[in-house]
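Thread: quick sanity check before group meeting

JM: Hey all, I'm pulling together slides for Thursday and realized we never actually wrote out the predicted structure for the chain we discussed last week. Dropping the sequence here so it's in one place. If anyone has concerns about the input, flag it before I start.
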Amino acid sequence: MALSDRGSLTDVDGLAVGHFDKATRGWRTGTTVVLADTPVTAGVEVRGGGPGTRETDALAPWNLVESIEAICLSGGSAYGLRAADGVVDFLAAQGRGYPVGTLPHEVVPVVPAAVIFDLGRGGQFRNHPDASFGTQAAAKARAPQHRRGSIGAGIGALAGGLRGGVGMASRRVTLRTDDTTTLTATVGALCVVNARGSLINPSSGLPWEAQSDLKAPSRSERTTLQKYLATVAPPSFNTTIGVVATDLVLTRPEATRLAMSAHDGLSRAIRPVHTLADGDTMFSMATGRHELPTNDRTAAISRLLAASADCVAAACIDAVLHATSIGNIAAYRDLVPSAFR
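JM (edit): ok, ran it. Output follows.
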């Protein structure tokens, strides 16, 4: 699979993605918004020891809110949670949200959010996303969307000492609906990779998770990579956050399982992962374009969960492969260019 063919979260029908960031003097942070065209079922799973989140309790299957309109991912640590305010305002202006009255504008948009720690990474410590970042990212949401790398919420991200960023991937899953009929579903993922752990095996110079489109780097480049990694200390505070989605109809408990399976993908791509200093959080979204097979729903869900893990692992690696160097922080592709030949 070529780097340009890994797929996008927006391959899932009904989703758009928008990015807004600042990388001018004193700034290196941003926000990414996943916007649904109609309300979607959602779930969440938090496994990192230092999460920064908003409205995650609202997604619990036993709570009131049945569906959401958007998810906000942002830099800025806890300060960056303010970006979700802008997404809320953007949706409220369109009359989109949970109805709490009889008039069209009497709604409360529920926008779950998670943040990464990027404070002071090339920008001033108190320069972080606010509501305007969320508004502009939501306004820029497009489908299809193929931008990735050092953009949006990932513009200040690091991954095991290398540049991190935003990565995406998608998969098609064939499910049997009965003895003679099949259904092809889509699973997509978007990850903001800002990990303490590394995605690259320093011995081979390749990602821990095998990638068929990469070549073994030359010996000299592996040595360069090893020397670089030996001289940089992983940042003290981190986090990988993201969204995995499908175009199937899922119940709220099934959507929660989808978010749980996303962490299996993180574990395959990042070593170590879910540390005390990571706030690893994964959301799920089900846009409901297709009904799940009824003849063996358990088997269908199991295949869907496996595809979720595959997509998330690929999206994490995609972020590092597309990241770009800045200042004294190197990108993987610049240290081992022969891997891309």
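AS: nice. DSSP finds six helices and 15 strands in the chain. The first helix runs from residue 83 to 92.
JM: adding both to the slides.
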